[in-house]
Amino acid sequence: TTPDSIQRQVWDGKLPVCFVLPEDPDVPPLYSLVPRVGYFPALLDRLRAHLSRHAGIDEDSPGAQQLWLRSAGRPLRWHLPVGLLYDLERPKPPPLPWEVEIRTRDFPTDELVSFGPNNSLESYFLYCLKEADALKHRARVINEMGEREHRQLWQGLLNDQFDQFSVVNRKLMEGEAKYLPFRIYQQEADGGLSVLQCLAKPHREDSTPLTLSDLLRICLPNFTDPVTLATHGVSLPMETPLAWAYDKLAYPDNFLHLVLQPGRCNSAGDGESSAMQLDSSSES
Amino acid sequence: LSGPMLSRSAFNEALPQLLARLSGRLSWPMRLATVGAESDTPVMELQTSFLVAGPAADASDSAPVLVQVRLHIGFSSAYACPVLHFCLSQPDGVPLAASDAADFVRVNVESSTGEAAGQLDLASVLSQVPHPQLGCPMYTLHPCRTAELIGRLTSASEADRDGSGEVRDTNAAALAVLSWLTVYGRAVGLQVPPECFL
């Protein structure tokens, strides 16, 4: 199966971000168009270079090495894709460009994963891919791939090379999946994040496709309030088959990351400027 | 993947037996706990402290340092097998720097397996990740080969498995987890006494 235009649109989605350094207001902000499917720690080198040039903070200094990011007063859980973090912001996604604070002190070691030479983002990305393939194919496909193909997936993502990424990712995305990799996120008012993951097959017992509303019944059996599931800034109708949503809208880490929001789905879409506009003519 | 898989319920039921087998034989303080939003996910927590050699770079002043290890034994639904998450910190609670953590694991694995330093590709199997229920950063060993490993290690007979090939018998499950711990526990200096298998 060749990647289609929805998958390409998902890949190409970007967010304008404005990185500021509150501890030194004279330092000019750094503006960047960041891929929604990418990760903030991939920008650490650029941020350090910026601080070195404009804030006199040497790249090898403890401050630069223990750099972290904050938004709306809370550490950014940067092991999560950029777009997901944006969509999780409460009470609603911030105006664009998204102002993100750079911090050089008091790294929250009990809250944030620390990425660096001894714990690489690439290794974490591979960890996610392995788990997704364990769910889909008992890890057979990812384990059959050599290190070269694992590297190609990462390099493709890092360098925004969709074709380089897709030619390998295709192998992970094709074929019958035992369970579909997904996570449901809910940002709590106190800043906490609840993450739900459970085992979901692509089909119900009667072989009809499992829908998102079936998924909610499995994951949140006692939940009765009207809610919406959204991804990449787009609300999904509850009758959407999970397998379709997974195939079209999974992130490069091979997970479908869904944000739980109160209220009914506005099936016309939310019309937010940050959201990817799905071209409905390309729905299969 | 061939070999017996473990179900979550078999794992949950095996934990008390695991605790019973290890208590009194392993000196690490240990207990059963629950994690998760509805406290519905059982784990086993163990902790201890090790005196390890000081940083190699400072060979003239290699005073031993105390490293606190906090271990969680949980279950991965994705891999249908046990999974280890651990924290490594200084006595004051400050987490070990990533390079020191990697060194700690490397030294433990090498001393128990005798593999030379250069051949061990730790980076591809050791990661700091958010704990699946707790959310806080913890180290883990990628479980990708675990199920395969359990299949080779366990002596579970056909009678212990149900139609889907999963290990159901609690005793067999506890022994399977113990076998797994024998291998993976080495990364954090945990040595399972052979008497635990009796």
From TrEMBL, chain A:
InterPro entries: Atg5, ATG5_HBR, Atg5_HR, ATG5_UblA, Atg5_UblA_dom_sf, ATG5_UblB
Residue ranges of every copy of the Autophagy protein ATG5 alpha-helical bundle region domain listed in the record: 119-174
Residue ranges annotated for the Autophagy protein ATG5 UblB domain, each copy included: 179-260
Entry membrane topology: Peripheral membrane protein
Subcellular location, record wording: Preautophagosomal structure membrane
Main subcellular location of this protein, as a coarse class: membrane
Key words of the record: Autophagy, Isopeptide bond, Membrane, Ubl conjugation
GO molecular-function term, one example from the UniProt record: Atg8-family ligase activity
Residue ranges of every copy of the Autophagy protein ATG5 UblA domain listed in the record: 10-103
One Pfam family here: ATG5_UblB
One GO term of the biological process aspect: piecemeal microautophagy of the nucleus
GO cellular component, one term: mitochondria-associated endoplasmic reticulum membrane contact site
PANTHER family: AUTOPHAGY PROTEIN 5
Reported function: Involved in autophagic vesicle formation.
Known partners and oligomeric status: Conjugated with ATG12.
Family the entry assigns: Belongs to the ATG5 family.
Protein's name in the database: Autophagy protein 5
Natural source organism: Macrostomum lignano
From TrEMBL, chain B:
GO biological process: autophagosome assembly; autophagy of mitochondrion; protein modification by small protein conjugation
Keywords carried by this UniProt record: Autophagy, Transferase, Ubl conjugation pathway
GO molecular function annotations of the record: Atg12 conjugating enzyme activity
GO cellular-component term (any): cytosol
Pfam families in the record: Autophagy_act_C
Family matches, as InterPro entries: Atg3/Atg10
Transmembrane segments: none
Protein family (similarity comment): Belongs to the ATG10 family.
Identification of the protein by name: Ubiquitin-like-conjugating enzyme ATG10
